[in-house]
């Protein structure tokens, strides 16, 4: 697999296209919004510089990485893609119809990597018309600096699709772990509950945002606390993911905290909007 398509140029699409372009792959990055694509180019340029400081062995150059990424609002530019990573909003009303369209445009051999936080891969595959070539590729944020990708085998995903996907991820410099399909997979079934419970603690006045996170960082050795993690993921995405988990398991244990709902409705989505549980310069 050589030609990479990335759909959705938000938090994840920016990182995934950066990762593959830095690995030498030609990338077509598609979003519905021109301004989002322009912002993506600016952030990729900044991030290549930033991550080079974190990894002195990296010699990626911003201009070189950007030169491998075609930015477009035209989904038909995926007509030559071998592997597409879809990173659009965690909302079935957005993702479902997109797969029908992608199936019409992309070559028959093309594999669809679903980058979702919680939606079952088998459900997506039911819409894509090529169920054996649909696979979960749960990249972590920020994708270029996280070493591991959670790969999800859907009900119909073929062994060849798993092998090809792991190979292309490996050629982009990342390792992968394969898990079976279940809403939220391994990582987010646990992580979303933890984040939600931390928000409930804040809402109940049990502790402050800073102290909740400090306890996880200094007592448990986590790199980030659950509230800063939620801000990094995007509070809208956390809310969508909890709703998906609650809906699929029909279990109230995933019921989103009222404070989370309030912040999302107020437009405080975390790092990407400059304010969530903490504030950020954007
Ligand atoms: N944020 C995270 O930490 C994280 C981690 C792993 C997986 N995910 C998953 O990745 C996906 C994307 O999350 P995100 O945080 O990047 O969301 P985001 O809201 O930052 O970005 C979504 C992007 O999709 C675009 N979009 C919407 N409909 C589209 C369409 N039909 N065609 C093309 N582009 C379209 C939007 O314009 C937006 O730029 C979600 O399913 C999410 O659950 C998120």
UniProtKB/TrEMBL annotation:
Q: Which UniProt keywords apply?
A: NAD, Oxidoreductase
Positions that bind NAD(+): 8-13, 31, 90, 95, 117, 141, 272
Keyword Membrane present in the record's keywords: the answer is: no
Q: Where is this site: Important for catalytic activity?
A: 138
Q: Which residues does the UniProt record annotate as the domain 3-hydroxyacyl-CoA dehydrogenase C-terminal?
A: 184-280
The 3-hydroxyacyl-CoA dehydrogenase NAD binding domain is annotated at: 3-181
Q: Which EC number(s) does the record attach to this protein? A: 1.1.1.157
Q: Which InterPro entries match?
A: 3-OHacyl-CoA_DH, 3-OHacyl-CoA_DH_NAD-bd, 3HC_DH_C, 6-PGluconate_DH-like_C_sf, 6PGD_dom2, NAD(P)-bd_dom_sf
Q: Superkingdom of this entry's organism?
A: Bacteria
Class of this enzyme: oxidoreductase
Biological pathway: Lipid metabolism; butanoate metabolism
> What is a single molecular function from GO for this protein?
NAD+ binding
Any one of the GO BP annotations: fatty acid metabolic process
Q: In which family does this protein belong, per the annotation?
A: Belongs to the 3-hydroxyacyl-CoA dehydrogenase family.
Q: What is this protein called?
A: 3-hydroxybutyryl-CoA dehydrogenase
| Annotated organism of origin | Micromonospora parathelypteridis
In the record, what lineage is assigned to the organism producing the protein? Bacteria, Bacillati, Actinomycetota, Actinomycetes, Micromonosporales
């Amino acid at each position: 697999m050589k030609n990479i398509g990335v759909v959705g140029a938000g938090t994840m699409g920016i990182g995934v296209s950066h990762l593959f372009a830095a690995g030498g792959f030609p990338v077509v990055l598609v979003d519905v919004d021109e301004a989002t694509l322009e912002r993506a180019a600016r952030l990729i340029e900044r991030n290549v510089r930033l991550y080079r400081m974190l990894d002195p062995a990296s010699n990626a150059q911003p201009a070189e990485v950007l030169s491998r990424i075609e930015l477009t609002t035209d989904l038909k530019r995926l007509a030559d893609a071998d592997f597409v990573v879809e990173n659009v909003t965690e909302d079935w009303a957005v993702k479902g119809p997109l797969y029908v369209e992608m199936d019409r445009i992309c070559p028959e051999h093309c594999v669809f990597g679903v980058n979702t936080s919680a939606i079952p891969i088998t459900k997506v595959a039911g819409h894509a018309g090529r169920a054996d070539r649909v696979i979960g590729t749960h990249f972590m944020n920020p994708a270029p600096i996280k070493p591991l990708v959670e790969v999800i085998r859907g009900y119909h995903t073929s062994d060849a699709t798993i092998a090809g996907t792991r190979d292309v991820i490996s050629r982009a410099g990342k390792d992968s772990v394969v898990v079976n399909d279940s809403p939220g997979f391994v990582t987010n079934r646990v992580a979303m509950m933890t984040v939600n419970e931390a928000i409930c603690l804040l809402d109940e006045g049990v502790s402050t945002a800073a102290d909740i996170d400090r306890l996880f960082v200094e007592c448990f050795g986590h790199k980030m606390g659950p509230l800063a993690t939620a801000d990094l993921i995007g509070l809208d995405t956390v809310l969508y993911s909890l709703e998906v988990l609650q809906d699929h398991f029909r279990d109230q244990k995933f019921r989103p905290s009222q404070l989370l709902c309030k912040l999302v409705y107020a437009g405080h989505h975390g790092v990407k909007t400059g304010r969530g549980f903490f504030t950020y310069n954007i």
